[in-house]
Fold this protein.
Amino acid sequence: MAGCGCNTTCSPTQKISPKFRKALWIALVLNALMFFVEIIGGSQARSVSLWADALDFAGDAANYAISLAVLSMTLYWRATAALLKGVTMAAFGIFVIMKVVWSWWLGLTPEPMLMGAIGVLALAVNVICALMLYAFRDGDANMRSVWLCSRNDAIANIAIIIAAVGVFGTGTMFPDLFVAFIIAYLGVSSGLSVIKQARVERKVDQGNIMTKA
């Protein structure tokens, strides 16, 4: 695990920085609010990438809530929470891919101005969250997963803004679908990365417990 010598000091309850807890609460509230903004805006703009990002905001809000619940627990349970979040991130990516195919079949072209405006707002929110969580990116799998969520969302929002310009310029849905696919790829790849680290940390903690016994 990053930032830990993986000896017997890894397993006991971790002393959590009040700054990290505060950052999670702020990120939780902002993500929950943006979920509703993008659900409504995505429906109005007929944008798959905004809908995908809305679901991502909802998933992140749930992830932050889970993180807050396990902050004071042992490494094993923090890693278990991270494992759950990793699975959620990967599942979200698969869902978005299915949504892309469905939207392509329907052939709906988004409204680029509204799509771009909401993309800018979402980017601002995710940059704020990413900056707050940046200092904790090299912590355990649980800390790393919340940092990855905000970082990936900021990247996705930049892509959504570019896609809005693309939709405006081409008059087609394909830039929107392409960005939605990128969001899906980020979700799957980051989810697998978090799952890998979380599984290692669970094994490390179990090994420490057996050593103590």
Notes: Helices lie at 18-45, 48-70, 75-106, 112-133, 141-170, 174-212.
